[in-house]
Specification:
Elements: E1 2-8, E2 14-21, E3 27-31, E4 37-43, E5 49-51, H1 59-63, E6 72-73, E7 79-80, E8 84-87, E9 90-93, E10 102-103, E11 116-121, E12 125-134, E13 145-154, E14 158-167, E15 171-172, E16 176-177, E17 195-198, E18 200-204, E19 217-218, E20 230-231, H2 241-246, E21 250-255, E22 264-270, E23 276-282, E24 286-290, E25 299-300, E26 306-307, E27 314-318, E28 333-334, E29 339-350
Antiparallel strand pairs: 1-2, 2-3, 3-4, 4-5, 6-16, 7-10, 8-9, 11-12, 12-13, 13-14, 14-29, 15-28, 17-20, 17-22, 18-19, 18-21, 21-24, 22-23, 23-29, 24-27, 25-26
Length: about 350
């Protein structure tokens, strides 16, 4: 593992960039600012490498990033309606940073903090261990929460993300990573020709503010049916209420999870020209598909390239949005003294 300076945070804290490599030449560059995946160099079918994630060349631009390019999200990824939830009969108010709703942990979520970092050796490959203590009532959440995230780059061209957390009070938790992928290369244009399969027969429809209605809607006969490989852009412009609400795809899918605690296949994406294929495996019950609907060209990314609408896709493995207010959804409550565990694997292949 190589480590280099990446600048200083707004609080004057030194920030580093860590580079993990494997014997195949794949490289993952990850910053301890937000646990952000800054770059991923991945081979194509001819052995040529490209950086397949959207991001920035400098820390300064991440400090002002409002698009969540590549970081860890928490304490609660995605939305909580009106920034409110009740736990053990106590009402809690969270920071509202998405209209009247709470989004991705608030104004200073896990994406905006400097994590403690160290390189470790595992039987799977080089790894980066990140830790953070989120204090009681930070952004409105109860409990002092200790969080551990380990990124491992394996010899099988997998980037594994393992999350662990404990709290001294009952609280809620929903962690994910918000990397934007473009398997043709981060500056290669839109991702509408990428062929996507999602292992989900249902999704969670939302209201116009992207808060789930509580229903689990079948994907059959809708633009959300990715049960067979389908170009992302094939139906994205159809006249369909949910697409209008999300300005495209920005929805949680209910994964067809296998039995047990090991990761199950959630999605597979293939980019025809390069032959690169990404598989997503996870222990989580849901996954948010987001296709960069709000990228408008104003963000100057790596190499001074502008990022436009649909130039990247996110596959955010997660519990469902607004679960604390939806009793029919899988629980996101973490009891005091209990341990939260989650794993997601991004596996890169060529075809």
């Amino acid at each position: 593992m190589r480590k280099q300076s990446f600048g200083k945070s707004t609080d004057g804290v030194e920030v580093e960039l860590y580079k993990l490599t494997n014997e195949n030449g794949m490289e993952a560059a990850i910053s301890n600012y937000g646990g952000t995946i800054v770059s991923l160099l991945v081979p194509d079918r001819r052995g040529g490498f490209a950086d397949v994630v959207l991001g920035h060349d400098s820390l300064d631009r991440y400090l002002n990033d409002a698009a969540y390019l590549g970081p860890i999200l928490g304490r609660y990824a995605n939305r909580v309606a009106k920034g409110r939830f009740t736990l053990n009969g106590v009402a809690y108010s969270l920071v509202r940073n998405n209209g009247e709703n709470h989004l991705h942990g608030g104004l200073k979520g896990f994406d905006k903090v400097v994590w403690n970092a160290r390189g470790i050796s595992t039987d799977k490959g080089e790894a980066l261990e990140l830790t953070y203590l989120s204090k009681d009532l930070e952004e409105g959440y109860p409990g002092n929460m200790s969080v551990l995230v380990v990124y491992t780059l394996t010899e099988e061209n997998e980037l594994r993300i393992e999350y662990t957390a404990t709290s001294d009070k009952d609280t809620i938790i929903n962690l994910t990573n918000h990397t934007y992928f473009n398997l043709a290369g981060h500056s290669s244009g839109n991702i509408l020709q990428h062929e996507l399969m999602i292992n989900a027969d249902r999704f969670t429809p939302t209201d116009s503010s992207s808060i789930p209605t509580g229903e689990l809607h079948s994907v059959k006969g809708t633009p959300f049916d990715f049960t067979r490989p389908t170009a992302i852009g094939l139906r994205v412009n159809q006249d369909y209420e949910q697409l209008a609400y999300g300005h495209g795809y920005d929805h949680n899918f209910v994964l067809n999870r296998g039995v047990g605690d090991s990761p199950s296949l959630a999605a597979r994406v293939h980019e025809p020209k390069s032959g690169r294929t990404l598989e997503v495996w996870t222990t989580e019950p849901g996954m948010q598909l987001y296709c960069g609907n709000f990228l408008d060209g104003s963000i100057r990314g790596k190499g001074e390239k502008s990022y436009h609408k649909n130039q990247g896709f996110c596959l955010e493995t997660q519990h469902f949005p607004d679960s604390p207010n939806q009793p029919g959804f899988p629980s996101t409550v973490l009891r005091a003294g209990a341990q939260f565990r989650s794993m997601t694997v991004f596996r890169f292949l060529t075809q």
